[in-house]
Design goal:
Helix content: 10-25%
Largest sheet: 8 strands, mixed
Shape: globular
Number of helices: 8
Order of helices and strands: HHEEEHHEHEHEHEEEEEEEEEEEEEHEE
């Protein structure tokens, strides 16, 4: 592959229109929030996870809502803050069942010893069917596909909970396979992806990445498995150098949106995610040639992203994680939320063979919500271009749009 020259890329980043500002409501909300990355910056040869935790929300521990047996307190009987499965089904026009023959794998670094127990709390709270080792729905293995020994904790516990809960929200009937890499090195995470496929995963979600560059090419085959849909988070830090492996043409790069309730016909409004706490990753690859199925005009290489779902921590989903010092019920965002959710939607539709690459999303946009408005260019200005702004049709932060039923899947 011949890299596009930086000069050429800069020359092509000419402004198309004035940037679309974020909504006033989102800005007001942002002033009172507190958000922290779940994973720190990665060393060379390692990836970071893309989850952002709201630290100003403490939802307490244990099963909540109508399934909080034995308690009548308001705290216990009220559902947690953040969107639950029914909310997301409504926002994205999805059925609440399907995908029973699908196995969604999530690849993460290190062990979360409470992953299955915390998943049980989430699913019971929202009335989802149990997904356990005992009933064959849930399985946890190391990067070699063995149930033991599991790796040591690498600080990704809340990332693991987010991944498992978002797959559950999208596809409650799916089987879930958690593959834990020994650490967050690119080599070990790539091996974990190969293991997930070898163990029968039909979809594999990867909520991590590192800035594209030389030395990563040898690991790219791990993310190319025709017949298996592979989703990858686009990143949480807005427009700039795209992240690997989201820049690969063999994966579906998943961007992010801000999702809010509204009084319109849909009942929801959605825009490209970008605020002082982060923004959906987007960018023009200098290493990966442009695939034939991608036709945007101002990027000569692979453009990220392809499709999107909720990722803004200010409008994020509820997640349960009681390990590693977290309070139990949290609101978490980042494209670590959108990638496993889209993997679950693909599983819900039951057609993973369509995703040897992301080309399918470029022919079925009628089944997607076109996300217009918002910008991820809080940190770097791209001149009002579609590469960093939510515009009509394709754009970098949200790709071709968010799910509107299963017609595009």
């Amino acid at each position: 592959m011949t890299p596009a020259t930086p000069a050429r890329i800069r020359a092509l980043l000419v402004a198309l229109t004035a940037a679309v500002a974020a909504t006033t409501a989102s800005t007001a909300h942002a002033t009172s929030a507190s958000v922290t990355p779940a994973c720190g910056a990665a060393s060379p040869g390692f990836a970071r996870c893309f989850s952002l935790v709201r630290t100003d929300i403490d939802g307490g521990k244990g099963v909540r809502g109508p399934n909080a047996a034995g308690s009548t307190t308001a705290t216990a009987t009220t559902l947690p803050s953040g969107y639950g499965p029914a909310d997301l089904d409504a926002a994205y026009n999805l059925p609440s069942s399907g995908g029973a023959d699908q196995t969604v794998a999530v690849v993460d670094a290190g062990d979360d010893p409470k992953a299955e127990a915390d998943l049980a709390v989430y699913r019971q709270t929202y009335g989802l069917p149990p997904c356990t080792t005992a009933n064959g729905c849930f399985r946890k293995v190391n990067q070699r596909g063995q149930s033991a020994p599991l790796p040591v904790d690498r600080g990704w516990g809340v990332e693991i909970s987010l991944d498992l809960d978002m797959v559950s929200a999208a596809c409650p009937d799916c089987h879930i396979l958690l593959v834990e890499g020994d650490d967050a090195s690119v080599a070990n995470l790539s091996q974990a992806v190969d293991t997930a496929v070898a163990l029968g995963a039909t979809e594999v979600s990867n909520s991590y990445g590192t800035a594209e560059g030389n030395g990563l090419q040898s690991y790219s085959p791990s993310y190319a498995h025709p017949g298996v849909a592979i989703t990858v988070s686009s990143g949480d830090y807005g427009y700039g150098v795209p992240n690997w492996p989201a820049d690969l043409t063999s994966v579906t790069a998943v961007g992010g949106t801000s999702l809010s309730r509204a009084g319109n016909a849909r009942g929801w409004t959605e825009q490209a995610w970008g605020n002082p706490y982060g923004g959906a990753g987007s960018g023009c690859s200098a290493w990966i040639d442009k695939p034939a199925w991608q036709t945007d005009q101002n990027c000569p290489g692979r453009m990220v992203a392809d499709v999107a779902a909720v990722a803004d921590p200010l409008t994020g989903p509820a997640v349960y994680d009681s390990y590693g010092g977290y309070a139990g019920w949290l609101v978490i965002g980042g494209t670590s939320a959108s990638a496993p959710y889209i993997a679950g939607v693909i599983a819900l539709a039951g057609n993973p063979e369509r995703y040897a690459d992301a080309s399918y999303f470029y022919g079925g946009t009628a089944g997607l919500n076109d996300v217009v408005g918002g910008t991820n260019a809080e940190r770097v200005d791209c001149g009002g271009d579609y590469q960093c702004n939510g515009v009509t049709g394709y754009d970098g932060p949200t790709g071709n749009g968010s799910p509107n039923g299963l017609a595009a899947f």
